[in-house]
Amino acid sequence: MSTYTENPTVNTRRLGTQGPRVTSPGLGAMSMSGAYGPTRYEESIAAIHSYVDAGGTLIDTGDFYGAGHNEMLIGAALRERNREDVVISLKFGAVLAPDGSFIGFDTRPDAIRNSLAYSLKRLGTDHVDIYRPARLDPSVPIEETVGAISDLVDAGYVRHIGLSEVGSETIRRAAATAPISDLQIEYSLLSRGIEENGILAACRELGIGVTAYGALAKGLFAGSVGGTRAMFPRFQGDNLVHNQRIASTLAEIAAARDVTLPQLAIAWVAAQGEDIVPVVGSRTAEQVAATVSSNGVRLSADDLAVIDSALADSEVRGDRYPSEQMMLLDSER
């Protein structure tokens, strides 16, 4: 049976053999910039402060989250904190129109240098700890992208190179170009593709860590199914009804162990290996506290077997992104 420790502390893990030591779980900041609905500035600042004050170090963002809003928010929150106590993981490359719509990717070397210049200013820092392309740019060889980031490492503006949502072949090509700290990719009780398509195996063979987002299944495990989530196939029509039944089954397993479903879901990701760090999106200090509390959950081998058995009876329905976005995922090819 699982055990739960009251007032748990954050755990520390290293991102692969080449990356930094970070705390698990990490804090995903995307939802603080309106991804799932309106937010309050003071509330977001308080959430970041509560994570850092709890000992958390890994904060994940993207220069396109809120068209720079997320970076400025993090910069403001960390202004009176010790910069060296925080590991900022930053994605780049997505190109936005003035209305905020997505219009493509650009990971050419000059574009990378330009993007980082603006990010450093918005974050109020002289370096980024992990810099990664948000998606594979089909018009730019990954060797060029990684090589450009490597030059920024040599110049002191970046400390580690990361990847995001790429397949095993791209991972191998990137790793042959420069040391890679970690791959950021969706991995959860309902998104286990990396176990089957060779991605997780490639990362482990090459000594690359995994920062796993989506542990709460984009909010499904927390009971959040409205708003912009309706764009995702898993939150539509019969798919949603079916997937909610899976969540209910998992909630029963969690309740039998005196933990919440979000705690169980985050703990499950963390239990898949010391090389995996769940990154959980939070918008409030209360959500941060709930995320950190997952460190108090220890799942036994029997617990993991029960969970696997429950999932084997009913596979998730619906892709994890709309079809046009799925086509952009190198990790799904």
TrEMBL record:
One of the Pfam families matching this protein, by short name: Aldo_ket_red
Residue stretches of biased makeup (Polar residues): 1-15
GO cellular component: cytoplasm
One of the record's GO molecular function terms: oxidoreductase activity
Residue numbers spanned by region Disordered: 1-26
Keyword Oxidoreductase: yes
Keywords: Oxidoreductase
PANTHER family, sorted: AFLATOXIN B1 ALDEHYDE REDUCTASE (PTHR43625), ALDO-KETO REDUCTASE YAKC [NADP(+)] (PTHR43625:SF40)
Name of the protein this chain belongs to: Aldo/keto reductase
Originating species: Brevibacterium aurantiacum
